[in-house]
Amino acid sequence: VQLQASGGGLVQPGGSLRLSCAASGFTLDYYAIGWFRQAPGKEREGVSCISSSDGSTYYADSVKGRFTISRDNAKNTVYLQMNSLKPEDTAVYYCATSFRFPTPSFRLREYDYWGQGTQVTVSS
Predict the structure, then answer these.
(1) How wide is the angle at C-alpha 59 spanned by C-alphas 26 and 42, nearest 5°?
(2) What digits encode the pLDDT tens for the residues 87-116?
(3) How many angstroms separate the CA atoms of 1 and 97, rounded?
């Protein structure tokens, strides 16, 4: 089981990025997927997640209306489209999957496998 996060980079405030989380070793749409981020000196926090059962999506208040999570089952990949980026969105972004909980949450302990992280820097 592996998750490969990619798509991070340097972007100006107000810009956009699309992160990808490619899965291997398992069929991604059978399991809940979450995106998390960790800024320097801060705890890892949940950003968005998508359920395995009905595709319901969830967002942290800080990103609602700006970020969109989606799934491409044919590519076994989950995306995080990030628009209207702010300097406070700067962090390492991680994707993770839960094999035990089909309805996802932002509780880190419910996730079983994690990708390696991709750096997002929002700065002028």
Answers:
(1) 90
(2) 999 999 999 999 998 888 999 999 999 999
(3) 10
